[in-house]
Design goal:
By secondary structure, the chain is an alpha/beta fold. The chain is built from 4 helices and 15 strands. The strands form 3 sheets. Strands 10-9-8-7-11-12-15 form a 7-stranded mixed β-sheet, sandwiched between helices. Strand 3 and strand 4 form a beta hairpin. The chain is globular, with a radius of gyration of 18 Å. The termini are far apart. 45% of the residues are buried.
């Protein structure tokens, strides 16, 4: 199936939904049939009464159940938060390219809700015994989801783990851990810094971009970014050409 050319729709039943931190929720949905999902891909959920679906990175995919981590940010997520176990919804996807998993010592970086696809990636690396370390940053202890395993945690206020923004520790992490590849997801400043440090130390970097996406298949052009390819700057859609890009290909706008 080419996920980018058409929307594959699945009926799904809400298996579980719970609050997992001060501002984030976790929903686990059971599809009518198993769905193959790569770490870094996303699904779109239809929200009753709204025209556009809401896209979410996949947090987990176990025994036919897809998990999504989300924050309430508007009518769409408010609707999803209101769902109950056994509610029937429909999802589209999976979309996007996902991470290119390589047998290399990996540094995983997640910040905020960007921990979702990175957590999924970590589970995949662990399954194949690829050496990795997962570092993540949050505002404070209350924002850390209780259903996630992280190796190194940084909080802005120092309420858990080391104090300060994860941005302040990225170079130290690279120097001490000496990864062969970096995978990252989170706010653009985190991705840009990871990509720049990757270039500085000669480490390949893959970044999962976060953008508002409407159609999910590259038609509406609402999630366009600039990338460097074949010696020129070109347009790319996060939903279709990404959401994962090589860090040194992205044209980072401050």
């Amino acid at each position: 199936m080419d996920n980018n050319k058409s929307k594959k729709i699945y009926k799904a039943k809400v298996f579980n939904i719970e609050k997992v931190s001060k501002s984030s929720h976790y929903i686990e949905i059971e599809c009518e049939k198993p769905v193959n999902v790569k770490a870094g891909q996303f699904i779109s959920i239809y929200c009753d009464g709204l025209t556009l679906r809401r896209p979410f990175s996949v947090f987990s995919n176990n025994n036919g159940k897809i998990g999504v981590l989300f924050k309430e940010r508007g009518k769409g997520t408010e609707y999803i938060k209101s769902l109950k176990p056994n509610s029937v919804i429909d999802i589209a996807g999976p979309f996007g390219n996902g991470f290119d998993i390589q047998n290399k010592k990996a540094l995983l970086i997640g910040a905020g809700i960007g921990v979702a696809p990175i957590s999924f990636l970590k589970s995949k690396l662990n399954e194949t015994h690829i050496e990795n370390i997962f570092a993540s940053g949050f505002l404070n202890k209350e924002e850390i989801p209780n259903n996630i395993q992280i190796d190194k945690v940084y909080t802005d206020d120092g309420s858990f783990g080391e104090k300060g923004s994860i941005l302040n520790y990225l170079e130290k992490l690279i120097k001490e851990y000496q990864p062969e590849i970096i995978y990252a997801c989170g706010p653009q400043i985190v991705l840009k810094t990871a990509a720049e440090l990757g270039e500085k130390y000669g480490v390949e970097t893959q970044v999962a971009m976060e953008k508002v996406m409407a159609c999910g298949i590259g038609v509406c052009r609402g999630c366009v970014i600039n990338i460097k390819k074949d010696g020129t700057v070109q347009n790319a859609t996060v939903c279709k050409d990404g959401p994962v890009f090589k860090g040194n290909e992205v044209v980072w706008n401050d």
